[in-house]
Amino acid sequence: MPSLRRKLTESKLVVASHNEGKVKEIKALMSPFGIETVSARELLLPEPEETGNTFIANAELKALAAARAANLPALSDDSGLCVDALDGAPGIYSARWAGPDKDFALAMEKVQKGLEEAQAQDPDVGHGAHFTCALTLAWPDGHAESFEGRVHGALVWPPRGEKGFGYDPVFKADGEKLTFGEMAPDKKHAMSHRADAFRQLIAACLN
């Protein structure tokens, strides 16, 4: 229940991510609230192994690890692309599909190949997909608040646009003509899965 939510009263928090794209988006989302952010990379915090089997489980373990290591509140994001024709893959393994070099061009090719194989088996298979984002706000004492957002759309090929990051160039949100890779950052921030989760976090923990 909302009344049981813990409010964020501290003026500084750790963005528990080494992904510069995510760090930039989260910093932009937090800036209107006058909260100073520092990334896990800046603090030289190790990246914990993502052993959870859901977006929220992985977001929680990353946020709690950073909060305890830095002795500050920490905000973590775990997000990914879920493709209908691939039974929700790559899902929580979205980053791993990019390999150790974080090669998302390769990851997007894997998604497209999987979609083509699925369509070869069933011509009626569509291009539907959604992005999911779990945000966890955690404190050094082990308390955590988690929120999950989504944005639905469809895949396009070939990739379009050099803005954003990750799978953005192959994802077009419902009702839009531009991919997230082509879209101005402010417009993407207003409608993305991360923005959806962040709106929930604001209502529960910042207002």
Please tell me about this protein's structure.
- It is built from 5 helices and 6 strands; from the N terminus they run βαβαβαβββαα.
- It has a 6-stranded mixed sheet with strand order 2-1-3-4-5-6.
- By secondary structure, it is an alpha/beta fold.
- The two termini are 15 Å apart.
- Strand 1 (12-15), helix 1 (20-30) and strand 2 form a beta-alpha-beta unit.
Please supply descriptive tags for the structure shown above.
single chain; 207 residues; alpha/beta; 6-stranded mixed β-sheet; 5 helices; 32% helix
Quick recap:
This protein is an alpha/beta fold. Helix content is 32%, strand content 21%.
Nearest-angstrom radius of gyration? Answer: 17 Å
Terminal-residue CA separation: 15 Å
Write the H/E string, N to C: EHEHEHEEEHH
Secondary structure tally: strands: 6
What helical percentage do the residues reach? Answer: 25-40%
Main pleated-sheet profile: 6 strands, mixed
Low-confidence stretches: none
Strand coverage percent: 15-25%
Query: What structural class results from the helix and strand content?
Result: alpha/beta
- Principal-axis shape: globular
Mean pLDDT: 92
Major beta sheet, strand line-up: 2-1-3-4-5-6
Q: Helix tally?
A: 5
How would you summarize the topology of this molecule?
Elements: E1 12-15, H1 20-30, E2 36-39, H2 55-70, E3 74-83, H3 104-121, E4 128-138, E5 144-155, E6 171-173, H4 185-191, H5 193-206
Parallel strand pairs: 1-2, 1-3
Antiparallel strand pairs: 3-4, 4-5, 5-6
